[in-house]
Amino acid sequence: MKKLINSLNDGFFQMVHGHRLIYNTCWEDPAIDRKLLALDPESWIVMITSAGCNALDYLLDDPAQIHAVDVNPRQNALLELKAALILKGDYEDFFKMFGSGSHDNYVGIYHAIRDNLSEEAKNFWDRKIRYFKPGRGLRRSFYYHGTSGWVAWFFSIYVFYIKREAGRHVRELLTAQSLAHQRAIYERIDGCIWDRFNRWIIRQPALMSLVGVPRSQVRLIDETYPGGLGSYVRDKLRHVFTTVPIRDNYFWRVYLNGAYASDCCPNYLKSENFAYLQRNITKIRTYTLTLTEFLRQNPGRYSHYILLDHQDWMAGNAPEALEEEWELILQNSLPGTKILFRSAGMDHGFLPRAVKQALRFFARRTDNLHVTDRVGTYGSLHFAEVA
Q1: Distance separating alpha carbons of residues 53 and 268, to the nearest angstrom
Q2: What is the pTM (predicted TM-score) of this model?
Q3: Angle of the 215-224 helix axis to the 228-243 helix axis, nearest 10
């Protein structure tokens, strides 16, 4: 029976990732990434697309080229839409779409830039551009669409309309001006939200699938973190809301508010960066492939790889594919090539032995930066150079 349940959970995860937009915003802190990566005009980057936010952030460091690779075509379609709006050159329209999450003329804006999209992106946005439709309803924002957006919407309803006491505390938290104030408020929030229902739902594989966490990652957390997944989530929330200033934490604010503010948003949405992005947006190219397929089809000596946390899934489900991917990464690297990745686990013990021998890790630097991460949901951060 357990084997059958696990098979059904894995099938649901594959179904979700094969047919849905998962990430409507990136869930990795580019401020940390850019400190580690040291990008410059000689940088040739290979990265996982996700929602495309961080590709645009890295572009501000003037790399030579960014190759954004994702097996989910809907994630690339999202980056294409952002790039087309930047190319159009109207900052107000761009911020309304991706800052406010809606636009009164979203259909007209879309048709003005549609011809700049790939056929795959057109097919997706022809059906889903309504995500940007404004309204008074609870799902009034693009940031409450896509599967991660569904989860954000559900918990915003739960916090602000069902657990009203917790909602009042959250609103107060968002105005806190000091960490001491945040800690005092969060103690009240923690006591409100960790009831039996939340402890149960956080362990449901369907919920984890919707936010992009496969069963292998859940298993990794359960096996390596004291108290398992429930304690992991509770401790991570406590850390991010009591040790990292909330006033500039646009990651959590966008899901709580459904929109970014002009003074609390990703760098790619800031008006002072828009003209630069417009001049350089063609440096970003998207590919709907696995990383292994990309490197086979586009061999080269790349200077940077940003791998997010996708190797957690490979380590638990396809170790042979993990070894093959790393073999190609190393074949397409030079001495000094920089590699950045995250994990739900506490270390990088899942890497093949030959890979560990080929890399130099900088644990002190990453440990110091990891505690400042505004997202705060990963177990570990890893940065290495090819020896």
Answers
A1: 7
A2: 0.92
A3: 80
